[in-house]
From TrEMBL, chain A:
Keywords: Cell membrane, Membrane, Transmembrane, Transmembrane helix. The lineage of its organism: Bacteria, Pseudomonadati, Bacteroidota, Cytophagia, Cytophagales. It is found in: Cell membrane. This is Macrolide ABC transporter permease. PANTHER family: ABC TRANSPORTER PERMEASE YTRF (PTHR30572:SF4), MEMBRANE COMPONENT OF TRANSPORTER-RELATED (PTHR30572). It is a multi-pass membrane protein. The chain crosses the membrane at residues 20-39, 258-288, 315-333, 345-367. Its main location: membrane. One of its GO terms (cellular component) is plasma membrane. Coiled coil: none annotated. Belongs to the ABC-4 integral membrane protein family. GO terms for molecular function: transmembrane transporter activity. It comes from Larkinella punicea. The keyword Nuclease does not apply.
TrEMBL record, chain B:
GO terms for cellular component: membrane protein complex. Belongs to the ABC transporter superfamily. Macrolide exporter (TC 3.A.1.122) family. It comes from Larkinella punicea. The keyword NAD does not apply. Transmembrane segments: none annotated. GO terms for molecular function: ATP binding; ATP hydrolysis activity; transmembrane transporter activity. SMART domains: AAA. This is ABC transporter ATP-binding protein. The keyword Metal-binding does not apply. Pfam families: ABC_tran.
Length: 384, 220
């Protein structure tokens, strides 16, 4: 029967070409959408690697002041630490979690070159951000006495650089010594892909890394924030101070990811509804046109259910033709590693899109095919 | 073979009730070639549809090989139509998107005959009606007579015991009509029971028995 249906569809290919293009276009749009969703869901399921609740980022800008910047930053840090509301405070580069700035550099080890995100932080950063260290330990200021600067890397960088090798104590890029490994660190939020990352000990004498990360006690409010900002601006006159609550920054970052996905979802939704309605209409029309054939098939031995199954199978065969063409395009994405996204994401998106397309066409065919099954053969044959 | 007792068929709409058949009693024996005649609208096709299990009578009983079919479900009726009955229609009812051989194969699809034997049987049936050189053609490429021969091949491909022909020569000229009639007579000679609706007295004369209907009632 399948062969018979293939012949029937193939011999009517011109009449079906528009329908085929519609299903193909729907598949491709759906594939794009599901790739985006699968990519983001997969990322979301990976742990963030730190706790953003009750964490504040204090940006210090020295403006016109150019004297003793490092000492002033250190002084502010000590002042902030002294507040009973502050559980932990540390200094870091301005690419703090959920910020829009980023910093990356190449890391070399044994002829391997990996591009990694760089975070310059002090020894308290792991405590402040609640980052679990899974191998070794977080670096201390005392570790910087040697020739090499101590660094902590994330699991991703460890896998790419060392594979199964033990990373602790290894020298990378001829200037860093690995003291510890953390699991994940997705500074741009849950939707960010887990990228290679490296934490480098901040140089206490450097005037550049002027951002303070603090963890406050739960329930600490804006009154404390105002008091702290006022105290800082009094200490370092002429500097500007800006406080970002990571909970708010996270929302903004999420919006940047989610809004395009939602827009894409709405547009695709409308497209799929249109295609579904189109299919529904075309099938209804096709059944009205083929009443004689339905009567004939009933006369030759088809049951009502058999007729219903035939119409559903026909649309499934048509969808299969469209999907085969669609797969030729879609399979290029994992094969050519487009956008440097894992092949598994594309393959999952392809599988979901195929299932959804088959689901939609089956749903659209269900009602018209039931109508076809109810056609009285004697009446249909007489009409012809 | 086919036994109709007190058959009545009424078509009802919300406002009109039409009596299409009234008190029809008929017994068709195995191997008979029967023609049904009557003016348009007298119920010939309705009677043929009831005998072909495509329609149900409003009253009365239909027996096929001694079995009452009124209790049969859709699946059983479909099986009987597929295995015991072959249909030939005035307007051929060929599927234009399928080739001649694919059209002829259709009844075998519904009894799940495999591809190769299906094609062999279809070719044999086409050979029988003299169309073995047209198997790859499409219905639109055939003349009226050739189309009807394809329809006959389709009707006989499953080797049914009964052939129901609804004005098989109605759309053909007399020469072509005679050719079709010769084929039907040949099939009857081979043992098929044939019931044919016709308007043509000459065709009817070539059958064993003539049944005349008038206003839904059997008059002969």
């Amino acid at each position: 029967m399948i062969r018979h249906l293939f012949k029937l569809i193939w011999n009517k290919k011109k009449a079906h070409s528009l329908l085929l293009v519609e299903i193909l276009a729907s598949f491709l749009v759906l594939f794009g959408l599901t790739s985006l969703i699968v990519y983001n869901v997969r990322n979301y399921r990976e742990p963030l690697g730190f706790e953003y609740q009750n964490a504040w980022a204090i940006s210090l800008k020295s403006n016109e002041d150019t004297t003793e910047l490092a000492q002033k930053i250190e002084m502010v840090l000590q002042r902030v630490k002294a507040y009973p509301e502050v559980e932990s405070a540390s200094r870091m580069s301005n690419n703090f979690p959920f910020s829009q700035s980023s910093r990356n550099n190449g890391i070399d080890y044994n002829k391997k070159h990996v591009l990694a995100d760089f975070y310059v932080t002090d020894e308290n950063y792991a405590k402040t951000m609640v980052i679990p260290v899974v191998e070794g330990r977080w670096y201390r200021s005392a570790d910087s006495v040697g020739k090499y600067s101590p660094v902590v890397i994330n699991r991703k960088l460890k896998e790419e650089l060392f594979g199964d090798e033990k990373p602790l104590g290894k020298i990378i890029s001829e200037r860093f010594k690995v003291t510890g490994v953390v699991n994940t660190f997705k500074s741009k939020g849950e939707f960010m892909v887990d990228k290679p990352a490296l934490f480098e000990l901040v140089d206490a004498k450097s005037p550049w890394d002027d951002l303070l990360m603090i963890r406050v006690k739960p329930g600490t409010d804006a009154v404390f924030e105002a008091k702290m900002v006022k105290a800082i601006t009094t200490m370092v006159a002429g500097w500007s101070v800006e406080v970002d609550h990571l909970t708010d920054s996270r929302k903004t970052t999420h919006n940047l990811t989610l809004v395009p996905v939602i827009i894409f979802l709405i547009v695709s939704g409308f497209l799929l509804i249109n295609v579904a309605l189109g299919l529904f209409g075309v099938l209804n029309l096709s059944i009205a046109k083929r009443r004689g054939e339905i009567g004939l098939r009933r006369a030759l031995g088809a049951t009502g259910n058999g007729i219903s199954q035939q119409f559903i199978s026909e649309i499934l065969v048509l969808a299969t033709f469209a999907l085969l063409i669609g797969l030729l395009f879609a399979m290029q994405f994992p094969l050519m590693n487009v956008f440097d996204i894992q092949a598994g994401i594309y393959l999952t998106a392809i599988a979901i899109s195929v299932v959804v397309i088959y689901g939609i066409v089956t749903l659209c065919a269900l009602f018209p095919s039931r109508l076809a099954a109810r056609i009285q053969p004697a009446v249909a044959l007489h009409e012809e | 073979m086919i036994n109709l007792t007190n058959i009545e068929k009424v078509y009802r709409t919300s406002s009109i009730e039409t009596l299409a058949l009234n008190n029809i009693n008929l017994n068709i024996r195995k191997g008979e070639f029967v023609s049904i005649m009557g003016p348009s609208g007298c119920g010939k096709s309705t009677l043929l549809n009831i005998m072909g299990l495509l329609d149900e009578p409003s009253k009365g009983t239909v027996e096929l090989d001694g079995q009452r079919v009124s209790t049969y479900r859709d699946r059983e009726l479909a099986r009987l139509r597929n295995e015991k009955i072959g249909f030939i229609f005035q307007s051929f009812h060929l599927i234009n998107d399928l080739s001649v051989v694919d059209n002829v194969e259709i009844p075998l699809l519904y009894r799940s005959t495999n591809g190769k034997p299906r094609q062999t049987y279809a070719k044999e049936a086409l050979e029988k009606v003299g169309l073995s050189n047209r198997i790859k053609h499409f219905p639109k490429q055939l003349s009226g007579g050739q189309k009807q021969r394809v329809a006959i091949a389709r009707a006989i491909v499953g080797k049914p015991e009964i052939i129901l022909a609804d004005e098989p020569t109605g759309n053909l000229d007399s020469a072509m009509g005679n050719e079709i009639m010769n084929i039907l007579q040949g099939l009857n000679d081979e043992g098929a029971t044939i019931i044919m609706v016709t308007h043509d007295e000459n065709m009817a004369k070539r059958t064993h028995r003539l049944i005349r209907l008038f206003d839904g009632t059997q008059v002969q």
